[in-house]
Design goal:
The complex is a heterodimer of chains A (68) and B (201). With 68 residues, chain A is of the alpha+beta class. Chain A contains 2 helices and 4 strands. Chain B is mostly beta strands. In chain B, the strands form 3 sheets. Chain B has an 8-stranded antiparallel sheet with strand order 2-1-3-4-5-6-7-8, with no helix packed on it. In chain B, strands 10, 11, 14, 15 and 16 form a 5-stranded antiparallel sheet that branches. Chain B starts with a strand and ends with a strand. The chains are: A alpha+beta (68), B mainly beta (201). β2 of chain A pairs antiparallel with β9 of chain B, so a sheet runs across the interface.
């Protein structure tokens, strides 16, 4: 699973694919940066009984967008 | 492990687990005359028999192809595709990827304004046709905590309150929220989507 965040660090998009190769083929245009959840967090995010949603997450110290 | 040669006599013998090579004599876990379910390994094929019919096949089929077949109760896997409850040769959708995305509707919108998610780009997959997409969303409206299917149109009286759709192409997927006459519907529209692809054979 890859988590994509905006300038504030808020997770706005996520992707979880059938294989690592497929997962790496995805680009979320407009995202400032991305991160991967650790295994414990990943298991919570894919658990249908767990209310935790990727968009509930905030990334600390998000990357700043590149200056043009 | 006690195994005998398939179709052989009662020469049960103990063997140690070892690789099954093509052309090897089949082995099963039942002695001749013993009833009940059994497992048979022969050549490049693994068969599970429920005591009456071969119900599960993993490996090489009679026609030489490879896959996994499971038959209905009371039917043999060789009794035709209509009697299979599943087969890897069936053309079915596979979830290639699942994900989430957000559309942020800002306050001050007017009827006709559209808001979009990030563009989800999967050009690297090399698809030549738009994939099937299954998606639902939670709107930024108090009282909604469950998903609504995409596309979706919410009415407000006889007018459109807002509408939601996805735009999918062979290389990209984007979600759109088009605002109508509904007021106070600003906020985060959170989507969950599944990208599906046919996987025959």
């Amino acid at each position: 699973m890859r988590l994509f965040y905006d300038i504030t660090g808020r997770v706005t998009d996520s992707i979880d694919a059938a294989t690592d190769g497929i997962e790496q083929a995805f680009i979320v245009e407009g995202a400032v940066g991305e991160t991967k959840p650790d295994r414990e967090l990943y298991l919570r995010l894919v658990d249908p009984k767990d209310k935790l949603h990727p968009h509930d997450l905030i990334v600390t110290n998000p990357k700043k967008p590149k200056q043009k | 492990m006690s195994l005998i040669q398939e179709g052989g006599t009662t020469n049960a013998f103990d063997i140690s687990p070892q690789p099954i090579v093509p052309g090897a004599i089949g082995v099963t876990n039942k002695v001749e005359g013993e009833t009940g379910g059994r497992l048979t390994v022969k050549d490049a094929q693994l068969l599970v028999n429920d005591g009456a019919n071969d119900r599960v096949l993993v490996g090489q089929r009679a026609d030489g192809s490879y896959g996994i077949d499971v038959s209905k109760t009371g039917f043999d896997i060789s009794s035709g595709a209509s009697n299979l409850v599943m087969s890897s040769s069936f053309n079915m959708f596979k979830i290639v990827a699942t994900g989430t995305s957000t559309v942020i509707v800002t306050a001050g919108y007017v009827n006709g304004d559209s808001f979009y998610s990030s563009t989800i780009n999967f050009a690297a997959l090399g698809l030549t046709a738009s994939p099937a997409v299954l998606a639902y969303f939670t709107p930024a409206i108090a009282g909604y905590s469950d998903g609504l299917m995409v596309p979706h149109v919410r009415t407000a009286g006889t007018s459109i309150g807002y509408s939601v759709r996805y735009l999918v192409f062979p290389t990209t997927l984007t979600f759109e929220v088009n605002m109508g006459v509904l007021v106070g519907a600003q906020g985060d529209y959170i989507f969950r989507y599944y990208i599906l692809q046919e996987t025959a054979q």
